[in-house]
Q: What sequence folds into this?
């Protein structure tokens, strides 16, 4: 379990580095995607420690909230951050209005 968790945290750090690099190149939507996935990989690293995994993002998030946020291991603000990141990633990936926005000078 620790080896799997370590692997997933390494993946989370790499994905976060990708997000930062994309943002530096003004690739905002792609950076949002990678930022969310960095969070998601980190959540999976934590849930691996208790042997839980799910093929659905909602399953990972629900388990994390139940086992770690409600138990007081992680602050409630983390749950809010995860929800915002998930919603923002979906908009960045699928909302054509975002892709058509005019860049600011």
A:
């Amino acid at each position: 379990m620790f080896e799997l968790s370590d692997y997933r945290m390494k993946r989370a750090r790499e994905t976060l580095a990708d997000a930062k690099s994309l943002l530096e190149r003004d690739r905002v939507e792609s950076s949002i995607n990678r930022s969310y996935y960095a969070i998601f990989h980190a959540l999976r690293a934590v849930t691996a420690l208790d042997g839980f995994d799910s093929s659905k993002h909602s399953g990972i998030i629900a388990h994390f909230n139940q086992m770690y946020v409600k138990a007081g291991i992680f602050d409630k603000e983390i749950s809010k951050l995860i929800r915002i990141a998930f919603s923002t990633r979906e908009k960045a990936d699928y909302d054509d209005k975002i892709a058509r926005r005019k860049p600011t000078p």
